[in-house]
Design a protein that fits this description.
It is built from eight helices and 22 strands. With about 350 residues, it is an alpha+beta fold. It has a six-stranded mixed beta sheet. A six-stranded mixed beta sheet has the order 8-9-10-4-11-12, sandwiched between helices.
């Protein structure tokens, strides 16, 4: 699958990028174009090729085939390779990689080798002010909190005015509350500056909330590209559906435009023969508590309070796996109690058995 937009004027274009490590195909024919000012999230399971792709874009690693264009100029291909330091690509590492012996201002100015010392200092001061970390200018990295170090790393990456900024799990080392705040501040800064960026994450919620487009990867391939709403509401595969939301998977049989399961019959638009196997992927919020004599009888096995939501694990006769129910309502039930459930068809996704 290609994640293409109109390539004219695209800051970054990837064409048929492939990379093998021994017998492992880390990247398989990846094509993607990034629009000016666009923030794109690469997301997928560990080992799917996200970080490998970032390393190839930055020039730290090379592809076995394919080419990369930056502002329409080829920087990597069969007969070309521009060194990483000459690509004008910014990179934010997971561990920030700040120089411990340099002050914040010196760290931010470090990559500005093509400017005079005076110009580099002025640019560093400008970016530090833009990020809002002026009070940290004379401090050293070991005196900074995790959130402060992340902001310094962002300032350093933006100081050279890169064509594109690559971010590899930049918020994963922060505590949850701080992670959300720093992430929001970072994305707000990038949007205000019109910075084009690619963010790698393993967290589907982060990808859905941050990216103008989300690029979902599986085993080195791009399997779906779209807005967060697009790929969440219309996942094109069982993998996509289950990665983006912890679905309840139930096997069924396709007959006359519907899939029959032990939990009910659901409409389906599938290119399957009559009697073909399919899966109903039921999202946790599609399971709803009903009256005592309505819907499906179920047994509560576990109840978890997750703050904003309540989660029940329930067993239903004829279904091998426990089903996950999530709701924002308070539920007055205990493990071992019987309940009844209905299923909202709007939260049921149907896929052919793979």
């Amino acid at each position: 699958m290609h994640g293409s937009i109109n390539d004219a004027g695209a800051p970054l274009t990837l064409e048929h990028i492939s990379r093998c490590f021994g017998d492992t195909l880390a990247l398989d024919d990846v094509s993607l174009s990034i629009a000016p000012g666009e923030i794109v999230c690469l997301v997928g399971q560990s080992g799917c090729g996200k970080s490998s792709l970032l390393r190839i874009i930055s020039g730290v690693d090379t592809a076995d085939s394919g080419r990369i264009l930056l502002n329409g100029t080829e920087i990597a291909g069969a007969n070309s390779f521009v060194e990483p330091e000459d690509r004008n690509i910014g990179f934010m590492f997971q561990d920030y990689a700040l120089f411990p012996h340099l002050t914040v201002e010196e760290n931010v100015a470090f990559g500005l080798k093509r400017l005079s010392r005076r110009e580099a200092s002025a640019r560093a001061v400008e970016v530090i002010a833009r990020i809002g970390i002026q009070a940290l200018s004379d401090r050293y990295p070991h005196t900074l909190s995790g959130g402060e170090q992340q902001r310094v790393a962002l300032a350093r990456a933006l100081a050279p005015k890169p064509v594109i900024l690559l971010m590899d799990e930049p918020f994963s080392n922060l505590d949850r509350g701080l992670r959300e705040r720093v992430r929001e501040e970072t994305i707000s800064t990038l949007r205000a500056l019109g910075t084009t960026a690619i963010l790698v994450t393993h967290d589907p919620e982060e990808a859905l909330s941050v990216g103008d487009r989300v690029v979902l990867m599986q085993e080195g391939r791009v399997v779906q590209v779209g807005t967060g709403y697009d790929i969440y509401d219309h996942p094109n595969s069982l993998y996509a559906a289950e990665f983006l939301c912890p679905c309840n998977r139930v096997e069924g049989i396709y007959r006359d435009g519907r899939v029959e399961t032990v939990l009910g019959t659901f409409p389906a638009r599938l290119n399957l023969p009559e009697g073909g196997k399919a899966f109903a992927c039921i999202r946790p919020q599609a399971l709803c508590l009903s009256g005592p004599n309505e819907g499906l009888p179920a047994l509560v096995v576990n109840r978890s309070f997750l703050g904003e939501i309540e989660q029940l694990l329930v067993g239903i006769e004829g279904v091998a796996d426990l089903l996950r129910l999530r709701t924002t309502s308070r539920i007055d039930v205990k493990p071992g109690e019987s309940i009844h459930l209905t299923i909202d068809e709007g939260g049921v996704l149907i896929f052919a058995a793979e």
